[in-house]
Amino acid sequence: MFYCREEELHTMNRRYEKGRFECVVIYGRRRVGKTALINEFCKGKPTIYFSALNASSQENLEALSKAIYTCQNPGSTSAPTYQSYADALDAVTEMAKGNRLVFVIDEYPYLAKAEKSISSRLQHMIDHQWQDSKLYLILCGSSMSFMEYQVLGYESPLYGRRTAQFKIQALTYREITVFHPKLKATEQALLYGVTGGIPHYINKLDVENDLDEALLENLFSTSSYLFEEPENLLKQELREPAIYNSVISAIAGGASRSNEISTKVGLESGVCAKYLKVLLDLGILKKETPITEKPGRKTIYAIDDNFFRFWYRFVPRNMSVISAGRMGLVYEQAVKRFYPDYMGLVFEKMCQEYLLRYAKNLPILLGNIGQWWGTDSKTRKEVQIDIVGTSVEGNEYLIGSCKYRNEKIGAEELELLRRYAAVFRRDGTFHYYIFSKGGFTPALLEAEKRKEVTLVTLEDLYQ
Predict the structure, then answer these.
(1) Domain boundary at 167, 192, 217, which?
(2) Do residue 162 and residue 180 come from a single domain?
């Protein structure tokens, strides 16, 4: 089934129907659904679909030749190889003369790595052959940094040649409900907490009736696809997967600042910074700085990919049990009882998505949203606010607290938010929000009636 990319598909089809030359750039992290979008778009359209290989220039030329020949001769099992990329691209030009033709180069960074001249060749073809043709060119890639700098960037030969670009993001917590609409809100939240909104992971988890059962069968099992996914992805993308694994493990174990991570991994800080940058480019890690402040000594690293965060939290520590095939016996005590703690950060992200995308009648027009932390000058204690939203203009702020607990949250949480807000800013207007899985006490509900706070339950996030 094809889910949740209707807007992108509609835009691509609208451009197709215009009949003009198009150069559409599609990029985003692996497993996010780029190829599924392209396949859906290409249905019923004359298409050359070439998926580049992480191989030599000659091997890629052979694969490109086969893709072109297969489009011309459907069902053929063999194909002659063009003498050069220039000849192959000339063949594409001939096929597009007077005809609407889609030409897809998937995994474009692999091709550009193997054949250094390809971007310049494509630039030449666009400028001198394809600009007035009906060719619909799609360049797709998973290397975010490459696509942003080497395809879309100012110094790229292809700069200015694109007619559209799509950065494909993970699905939001609410969008993934279309996969398993019968799950309860707590199960939907955990599904998002495990998969991070990556369609490929949702499909591989293969939830039928029970999420716990699906996790035991399709993640906490040595024979399952998801069990080996982090290792396979690192091997596929990186030359030194063991070192990257150590970096991720260090962060999963609590190291958050660059010097802490480098010490734990045993690397010089400058060397470690290079590994961190690669993981940032892949979307596995993220850098966080208190909102309203510039990156600096307060900047920390965290695992941004929910699946990696879940895997590194629960799999390594239970590896011997999983390998012995006994995870089902200890799942409740070894994994499930820690879900409320694990889901804390996931819930914060869900609440931020709610405010940015779904909430109605917000008191301010949000300009930015994030966390804030700092030191209370009076108590000398560290203060952290789960959500701080800044307004597009003016001195107004949305201050939020997120609690993924079963118990009801009381009025003391509102008082705590007020104290923290005073540490964050001594002036300004504050609008308080409290998000809770377990609901709220009568006293806090009364405070909401007095319009002192807005209360949001987990179920409200899905309304």
Answers:
(1) 167
(2) no
Q: Are 28 and 22 in contact (CB under 8 A)?
A: no
Q: How much is the pLDDT for 199?
A: 94
Give residue 1's pLDDT: 63
In a domain, 350, yes or no: no
Regions of the chain with pLDDT less than 50: none
Other Cβ atoms within 10 Å of 180 Cβ, number? 17
The per-residue pLDDT for 297 is: 85
Domain co-membership, 143 together with 185: no
Q: pTM to 2 decimals?
A: 0.92
Domain count, the chain: 3
Q: Rounded to the nearest 5°, which phi and psi values hold at 136? A: -115, 95
Pair 195, 76 in one domain: no
Residue 108: CB atoms within 10 A of its CB come to 29
Q: Find all residues with CB under 8 Å of 379, minimum gap 6, and list them.
A: none
User: How many Å separate Cα 232 from the centre of its chain?
Assistant: 18
Residues present in the chain in total: 463
pLDDT, residue 289, reads 95
In a domain, 143, yes or no: yes
Residues 27 and 162 in one domain: yes
Q: Phi and psi dihedrals of 455, rounded to 5?
A: -110, 135
Compute the CA torsion angle 422, 423, 425, 431 (nearest 10 deg): -50
Report the pLDDT value the prediction gives residue 209, as an integer from 0 to 100. 85
Same domain, 402 and 307: no
Give the whole-angstrom CA distance, residue 354 versus residue 357: 5
CATH number for position 116: 3.40.50.300
Whether the CB-CB separation of 318 and 334 falls below 8 Å is answered with yes
Q: b/e for 337-351, b at 16 or more Cβ within 10 A? A: eebeebbebbbbbbb
The pLDDT assigned to 463 comes to 92
